Amino acid sequence: MAEDTSAIRAWRVAPDMALEALRSDPLCEAIHTVYGAFECSPDPGAVRLSSRLHDDHGHLDILLNGAAITHATTEAELAPLVEGMVLGLAVRSRPDCLPVHGASVVLSERTVLIVGDKGSGKSTLSMELALGGARFLGDEIALLRFGDQRVEAFPKAVTIKQGAFELVKAHALETWTDRIRGPVKYLLPNTAFVGSAPKPSLILFPEYDAKAEGLQAEPISEPELVMGLIRQCFGGLERHPDSLSAIVGLSEVPGFALRYANTQVVEQWLQERLT
Amino acid sequence: MSPELKALIGLLRERLLQGESAWSWPSGIDGRRWLALVQENALDADLGALGLQVPQLVERALTGAYIRAGHDCAFSVVELPRLLGQLDIDGILLKGAALARVYYPRVAQRRMSDLDLLVRGKPQANRAHEALLSAGFRQEGPPLHGAHHHLPALYDPLRELRIELHTNLSMPELPAPEIEGLFERRRDLGQGLSVLEPLDRLLHHALHAVASPLDSPLLRNLFEIAALYLEVEEASIVPRARAWGKEEPILQGIGLATSIFELPCQLKRPEEGEFEQWCRERLEWTDAFDPEQSTARRLHKRIAHRRVEEAPDIPLWAVRWNVYLEAFKSYFVRRPKLVRTNPEISVRRLNEGALIHDAVNGGVHYLAPSMAGALQMAEQPISLKALRRALRSEGVDAQQLKELQRRGLLIWHRPEREL
Fold first, then answer.
1. Contact (CB, 8 A) for B83 and B129
2. Which residue from B minimizes the CA distance to A179?
3. Distance CA B361, CA A237 (A)
4. Which of A13, A16, A19 is nearest to A50 (CA)?
5. How confident is the model at residue A47 (pLDDT cuts 50, 70, 90)?
6. Are A142 and A132 in contact (CB under 8 A)?
7. Which of A201, B13, B55, B290 has its CA 20 to 30 A from that of B382?
């Protein structure tokens, strides 16, 4: 018997990868919290995510197409768990792009790529820029198309760790429990969009430093920029034979290392630079 | 046996017999060493799922491993049935890929580096091999020469999937009717996937766990043999193992597993010999996969390798002498050559220099043009003297060569006497 499609919610996280969950499943809300921007109409080929009670402790198994993958000890752990799992599914489903650990926004019609390690401040910076009006392409993975290096948006909600809760206190956001990172909240800027943006016009390597005075913006050389991008490649250069060419294709884009304590000064600097 | 290994075996034994709830962290053991043993045996994701009461440092490492494994395995769980269906490949999941679905409660608990698939006969295996190549997989390593029970591994870096197609379970091969029997008895998992039935699963695992104890997570393999052993009728083991023509190695594997975990076993287990003693020593290792090993450890590994994989019939003392002699000769009869670390290096011009990408270790370097030239010249082993001569006209000096060595792009290589 065919399933009632109104009972299902679906998300397309890559051209060839749609996910679905029953609205009655607690996993549905968790997925939508993180990947709400990707919502689509039900797809018969979608991968079914579901949860089921595993034992007397109230542990919830998370299943993909019926196979138990991992588990959450409480419902509050569901969103962080599906965040990483779906990210892995989505990135591995993109043979057309070079995935880079980076955030990206469109400001004054120009794409800005913000690349950095965990804790560098790229998520917070992209969120602040998006809340200030920039179009939000993503905070964690930038998908650079082979050939023309256009950015395919991946607007997963921004993950906000406990240290930055103050920044989003105006928003009524649920707190989730990440067993590695601790308490987290998710914020999806309303400027988020799914689609393709022009090749980056500017590449930033931010470093948040609470003691920094104003903004220190140092231009970086082509080799430094290329090596910085290579270090942040998801899956390494072995992932695709065109990876190195795609990165070399970005080597002429101006790159800056930023040190700052206040994202507003970065926003102001960007506005001046891009206009 | 070290207290840490004893504690780990104790935990696994509790799991085998009554679940993990009765286990508690023993006093007086070194948490770091215990964790290293867990990681060496690829048990971290599994134990991370159990919520054990362990020191915070250990707990964080185990939980992190389990969660990351969940992120990493999700794609293969979705993609494998889709891929096999699309390419019309009918096979039986073997080893880790099977155990992850039928023994462990969740797939993330069983780490695996590749997916082993048994297909019916060589023509089907060759067809599947070609289909995977056309779907974007690449063959890893050189073609296998001579008779082999599996084809060279195939890897797709985009999907991050490694698949090994098997036509038999071991060498020497099981008789053809026995392979047919595996297909007749297999258990359907749905979505076009199937696994061996429990007795076949035990026998296959027992064959493999002791076939390559050198580079495999031996304690985990023995744990899995013990777990599978507890699921089957003991009386059915010997007749099936005999039909396979593998009674001795299978009983050796089951014997070692039941002995390590002190499980009651009515089977007539072979007497423990030097091999079993070596396996017990191997269980104490925590750096078998670390390339920066001490000479003593490398000697030990080489001895073990010779004994286990190359010359199982030669007495261990003779192997030891042979290896020591080789090491001695290797030390004094050095014929070093300078050689590129590997031939899979791609170069892209950038600005005045070049980007060098080493596809084997993933390293990337930015080099001045003359240094990139030196690297290109050393495609074949070349003595330092000859290389210097060749490069004199290119403006490369000894300092630059040393820099290439420091970065690991050029190395001293001793092809004949390498230990």
1. no
2. B63
3. 11
4. A19
5. very high
6. no
7. B290
